[in-house]
Amino acid sequence: MSTVRDVCHHVRSKNAGPFWVTFDLFFDGPESFAKYGEAPALGPQLFERLFGADPAFVQRYPVASLNMVKISYARTEPQGGMVERDMHRGQQYVRLLEVELD
Fold this sequence. Notes:
Elements: H1 4-7, E1 8-15, E2 20-27, H2 30-36, H3 44-51, E3 58-63, E4 68-74
Antiparallel strand pairs: 1-2, 2-4, 3-4
């Protein structure tokens, strides 16, 4: 089984404004992008399970010229709430690294 860690040379997460979070998955080449860029394992159900995101508000943007996929979802609560532990969402990508893609 290939994981995100195996086929991406860089993965990051960050805020996309106070109401959205975005993940950038940079695949290690056009072959990996072609094979895994549309993997069902990276679908809305994953973001619902890992982050509590509403699957209806998960959006995927493939960028073939960069061999990358941007996946964004609406935050369950706006940025800066009282219980916010990662206000900039810079550490959220770690949960994706072991996701199996095959």
